Amino acid sequence: MNTEDRVLNLLRDNGLEFEILEHKPIRTSKEASEATGIPLKFGVKTMLLKTDLEEFIMALVPGNRKVDFKKIAGLLECDNVKLASAEEVKEIAGCEPGCVPPFGLQEEIAGKYLEISLLKNSRVAFSPANRGRTILMERDEFLKCIEAEKAEII
Fold this sequence. Notes:
With 154 residues, the chain is an alpha/beta fold. Helix content is 27%, strand content 26%.
């Protein structure tokens, strides 16, 4: 089963309400916002990160913001955190960089961190591991399917 199927099955199997938006293939959060008309701040940008301890973690931040690597390193009590390479993203997430979903990866990771400002949004949008699709759902429905530590990471 591919990553997109795992994401959609997780949503359906848990009886969650969501909408699939079809659009031209995109590479960035900004492009996704332009293609869907959804404000950038509602986008959940999923960043796969690698620590200096060779562990992979996920940071979920608003589409209009950037993860603060120093804050993540502080939370993890490690010296360095960097973006995973394109090859590592493909191996762990089962998709290309730029369309990593917030769950449904093909490999386990050490942790997941959700930027607390995302909790202010009534709805969220994210990639289901497909550059030509976006999932739109109510924030509370999203929180039912995401297991992540809530923290200030921007």
